[in-house]
Design goal:
Helix content: 25-40%
Mean pLDDT: 85
Radius of gyration: 17 Å
Number of strands: 2
Number of domains: 1
Order of helices and strands: HHEE
Distance between the termini: 24 Å
Structural class: alpha+beta
Low-confidence stretches: none
Shape: rod-shaped
């Protein structure tokens, strides 16, 4: 519906930004692991954001 109302946004740039946003916060963008500060034995995994201009994160 949006695309039919605003055809000027159907570009490769906008399509790549949308694809980045859909993968945002997933392991596909990479991640970091940190040791647990309480016990030192567990690990916490933090997924990276997409860093896209249109991303609300």
């Amino acid at each position: 519906m949006f695309i039919s109302s605003h055809p000027c946004y159907v570009t490769d740039y906008h399509q790549s930004e949308i694809a980045k946003m859909l993968k945002c916060g997933s392991s596909e963008n990479g991640f970091a692991t940190y040791p647990c500060l309480s016990c030192g034995q567990g690990q916490h995994k933090v997924n990276f954001s997409c860093k896209g201009k249109a991303c609300p994160q």
